Every structure is written in structure tokens, then in C-alpha cells.
Automatic annotation (TrEMBL):
Membrane-spanning segments: 21-44, 56-75, 87-105, 117-137, 149-169, 175-195, 207-227, 239-258, 278-296, 308-329, 341-359, 365-384, 405-426, 446-465
Subcellular location, record wording: Cell membrane
Organism phylogeny: Bacteria, Bacillati, Actinomycetota, Actinomycetes, Kitasatosporales
Pfam (any one): MFS_1
Signal peptide from the UniProt entry: none
Coiled coil: none
Name of this protein: MFS transporter
Keyword line: Antibiotic resistance, Cell membrane, Membrane, Transmembrane, Transmembrane helix, Transport
InterPro entries: MFS, MFS_dom, MFS_trans_sf, Sugar_transporter_CS
Residue ranges annotated for the Major facilitator superfamily (MFS) profile domain, each copy included: 21-469
Ranges for region Disordered: 477-502
Membrane-topology annotation of the record: Multi-pass membrane protein
Chief place where the protein resides: membrane
């Protein structure tokens, strides 16, 4: 159980089971991130073998985002109500099956369907996994350490996906689809033994079916509209009507949640300034990075003539920096707090994006590309763990799944929204007869948009610096019985100190 100790007291050592549980959860998050980035390099080979058009290829990426971003709120609440362990393991099994199907299908529609199912399963594993961590490890230094390792695995998976895809695609694109299956299966078997059982939360007011329907439909339609907007036109009647329908569904969702005795999302959590900054920061952080990666990948392969593997290796310094920070970033967060690190990380990200604006048809790896990647890698190492810690700190155990789903929704919607905007800016007025210099010039406005999005994230998170931090204290991990039920003695809970909070 948790207990305040003298700051100089040694921190309780983690048991092998705690390490095993964290490893299983990190593996699932690593696979989620890996799957997002790994498919990009394989798209040309997929299109050639399955005879798919460019618009069809887009849906191999968008299908995953649609399932992931559209069902995260439902996935987070399902983890709270049905049991985090149960939801996590079932969804991980579905992810493994969908990975096998994706590697064996021989038609575009079936491949897109398998990608949607994988995104759907990730929408349940991501919030369930995060809430298992936040209810197993006590708030404070121990949880910060666990979350820093967990989120670093996600960032590393996203970066390593490019490298692995470059290697596997040389043999066959099908290996990029099949690779997650055996890893997910091993994680599932280990999770059955290691992840502590959790009691289901009693939904005294029912399961908020109207909220689940309207919330899920609004997220699905929002992601679908954003993904399709560049093709249909941002000012087209179809796009405008879709956004109007999204607004109507969201208004209805809010009305339902305010009146529901057991809401899918308790809107009161958004009264917290730190929570709002975490959600908006997550949108700006992931949205800017996805847009940057899309543009830089096109720049390296289309304009510089680099191979898929060379492009992947160019991103490797950022991923390596994130991986190396895994074990140390938790103590840094304990010392300086999440607001300072988020601001510092966003500032590093803005500098990295701005530096890449100097890129031209001469690669300039040492002067432009490498420094940009290192700055962006440092930003990922600082911002991503800090956002997760800030969003989940101070939240009751029975709402951790809900908040985790909300944070992951912000990440995915931000990625879909800003990628669509960047794509629209780049393709505006472009022609197939553009010279390499004209193509590069068309990329620059997109890079400017990416930089401005990161700068907006910096400005949004600056007010957090004004919040006072409480005195530091050491908190140890919860005992297995308490962690498994997700409950604690109210008297002890009230007396627990909080570390590394705003």
C-alpha cells in the first residue's frame, strides 16, 4: 500500500511480478505505436501487389486511425466498467488475430478491414493498459517511473516502426503485417499470469448506452471527415455537412453526459486547468509530429532519392534518444514537475521543426537533418511521458480508464486533424509537372504549419508554469491486493502526499 516516507528513505524495490506486468503493458503499447508507423513505408509495395489506387492506399492508414480514434472513449470506459485486465487481454487477442489476417489477405478491402479491426482493438488496449499502470503504481515517483518507461516504449515503437518496415519490406510487405502477431500472442500469455485481477466497477446508473452511441459516432464521424476532407475539399458541401453533423452529435453527447447518472465521460474532469492543458498539448504534440514525419518521409524518398531503409535510419537518432531516456526521465519529472518539462519539450520541438525549414535539395545531414532529429527526439522524451502523468495525476482509480481514453482520443484526433491540414496545404495548387525545387517549395508551407502547431502547444502549456508544486515526498508501489481491486483505505488515501504534480 502507499505510504509517505522521509524524502531520504530508499524507494521500495519492485517485485518481479510488477516488472513483468509493466513489460506486458509496454509491449502492447509498443505494438500499437509500431503498427501506426510501420505500414507507411510498405504502402508502395502493397499498392503494386494488390493493384490499389492512391486513395485506396490512404485507407490502409486511415482505417486504423478510424477504429483507434473513434472508439477510444468507449474503450476507456469499458475498462472501468468491465474490468481492466479482462478488456486488455481480450483486445490484445483480437489484435493478434487481426495481424495474422492482415498478412494473409489478397484484396484491398479485406486488408483495410483488418486494419480497422486492429485500430479498434488498440482503442481498448491503450486506455486499459494505461489505467492498469495508474491503478497498480501509486501516484508519485513510482508511478512517474512506470509511466516514463511505458510512454517511452510507445515513442520508441513509433520510431522503430520505420526502421523495421524498411528492413521487412525488402523481403515482403506481408511481414510488416505479420510481425506484431507472435509478439502480441506472447504478451497475451504472459499477461494471463502476471496482470493482477481487477474488480468490475458497479455501474449503479446503468452503462450510459446513449452516451456510448453518440460519443462513438461523433468521434468516428470526426476522424472520417478529417481524413476525407483533403480529397473532398475542405469547403465542399459534403465536408461542411459532416462537420455540422459532428457538432450536433457532440452537443447531444454533452447533454447526455450532463444528465447521465453514470456518464461515459464525466465532464467535470475538464474543469481542471492541468487536465485541459494535457489534452490540448497531446493534440498539438502528436499532430505536429505526424505531419512532420509525413513531409520528411516524402522529402527524403521523393526528392533526395533515399531508399526506405535510408529514410528510416535518418529518423533513428530521435528514436534512440527517446529509448535511452526511458529509465531516467521519471526522476527528472519528480525533480522539475511536468509543466516545466512540457514547456521545455515543446520549445525543443519548435526549434527542431524551424531548423528543418532550411532543408533543400542538398541533404545537409549534419547541419540540418541530424540536429532537427535530436531536438525532436529530446522533445518526445520530455513531452510524452509528462503529458500522460499530468493527465492521470489526481484522478480517482475508478476514472483512470476514462481519462486514459480521453487522452488517447486527443492524441489520435490531433494526429488525424493536423495531418489532413498539412496534406491540404502541401497539395494546394500542385501539379504532376512540378520540378523537384517546386515540390520542395510546396513542402515548406506544410513545415510552417507543423511549426506553428508546435508553437501553439507551447503557448497553451505556458500557464502551467504559474502553478505551485507541493513539497516532494516518496511514494512506494501499492501492494498486490490493493492494486488488483483498485481500492484503498479512504483515510490512507486522504493522507497520501502527491509528488510531481502541478
Amino acid at each position: 500500500m502507499t505510504s509517505p516516507l522521509n524524502p531520504s528513505a530508499p524507494q521500495e524495490r519492485w517485485t518481479p511480478r510488477l516488472w513483468g506486468t509493466l513489460l506486458v503493458l509496454c509491449t502492447a503499447m509498443f505494438l500499437d505505436a509500431l503498427d501506426v508507423s510501420m505500414v507507411g513505408v510498405a504502402l508502395p509495395s502493397i499498392g503494386t501487389e494488390l493493384d490499389l489506387s492512391t486513395s485506396s492506399l490512404q485507407w490502409i492508414v486511415s482505417g486504423y486511425i478510424l477504429g483507434y480514434g473513434g472508439l477510444l472513449l468507449l474503450g476507456g470506459r469499458a475498462a472501468d466498467l468491465l474490468g481492466r485486465r479482462r478488456v486488455f487481454l481480450v483486445a490484445l487477442g483480437v489484435f493478434a488475430v487481426a495481424s495474422v489476417l492482415g498478412g494473409l489477405v489478397d484484396s484491398g478491402p479485406l486488408l483495410i478491414a483488418s486494419r480497422f479491426i486492429k485500430g479498434l482493438s488498440a482503442a481498448f488496449t491503450a486506455p486499459a493498459g494505461l489505467s492498469i499502470i495508474t491503478t497498480t503504481f501509486a501516484e508519485g515517483p513510482v508511478r512517474n517511473r512506470a509511466l516514463s518507461i511505458y510512454t517511452t516504449c510507445a515513442a520508441t515503437g513509433f520510431s522503430m516502426g520505420l526502421v523495421l518496415s524498411g528492413l521487412l519490406t525488402e523481403a515482403s510487405w506481408r511481414y510488416t503485417m505479420l510481425l506484431p502477431a507472435p509478439i502480441a500472442l506472447l504478451a497475451l500469455l504472459a499477461g494471463l499470469r502476471l496482470i493482477p485481477r481487477s474488480e468490475r466497477q458497479e455501474a449503479g446508473g446503468g452503462y450510459d448506452v446513449p452516451g456510448a452511441v453518440t460519443g462513438t459516432l461523433s468521434m468516428l464521424l470526426l476522424v472520417f471527415t478529417v481524413v476525407q476532407a483533403p480529397e473532398a475539399g475542405w469547403a465542399s458541401a459534403r465536408t461542411l455537412l459532416s462537420f455540422l453533423a459532428v457538432a450536433a452529435l457532440l452537443a447531444l453527447f454533452v447533454r447526455i453526459e450532463l444528465r447521465s447518472p453514470s456518464p461515459l465521460v464525466r465532464l467535470g474532469v475538464l474543469r481542471s486547468g492541468s487536465q485541459v492543458r494535457a489534452q490540448l498539448g497531446a493534440m498539438a504534440f502528436f499532430g505536429s509530429y505526424v505531419g512532420f514525419q509525413f513531409l520528411v518521409t516524402q522529402y527524403m524518398q521523393s526528392l533526395l532519392g533515399w531508399s526506405a531503409l535510408q529514410t528510416a535510419l535518418a529518423f533513428l537518432p530521435a528514436g534512440a534518444l527517446v529509448a535511452l531516456s526511458a529509465t531516467g526521465i521519471g526522476s527528472v519529472i519528480d525533480r522539475f514537475g511536468t509543466p516545466r518539462l512540457i514547456v521545455l519539450g515543446f520549445a525543443s520541438m519548435v526549434l527542431g521543426y524551424a531548423l528543418f525549414l532550411r532543408a533543400d535539395l542538398d541533404p545537409q545531414y549534419a547541419a540540418v537533418i541530424l540536429p532537427s532529429m535530436l531536438l525532436i527526439g529530446a522533445a518526445c522524451a520530455l513531452v510524452f511521458p509528462s503529458l500522460n502523468i499530468q493527465a492521470t495525476n489526481g484522478v480517482a482509480d475508478h476514472e483512470q480508464g476514462m481519462v486514459s481514453g480521453l487522452l488517447n482520443t486527443s492524441i489520435q484526433v490531433g494526429g488525424a486533424l493536423f495531418l489532413a491540414i498539412v496534406t491540404a496545404v502541401v497539395t494546394a495548387g500542385g501539379t504532376e509537372q512540378d520540378t523537384p525545387q517546386q515540390v520542395l517549395d510546396s513542402f515548406r508551407p506544410g513545415l510552417v504549419v507543423v511549426t506553428l502547431v508546435a508553437a501553439a502547444g507551447l503557448l497553451l502549456t505556458l500557464p502551467g508554469l504559474r502553478t505551485r508544486r507541493p513539497a516532494h515526498s516518496v511514494v512506494v508501489a501499492r501492494s498486490a491486493p490493493e492494486a488488483s481491486t483498485g481500492t484503498a483505505d479512504p483515510a490512507k488515501t486522504a493522507a497520501e502526499p502527491v509528488a510531481a504534480r502541478e
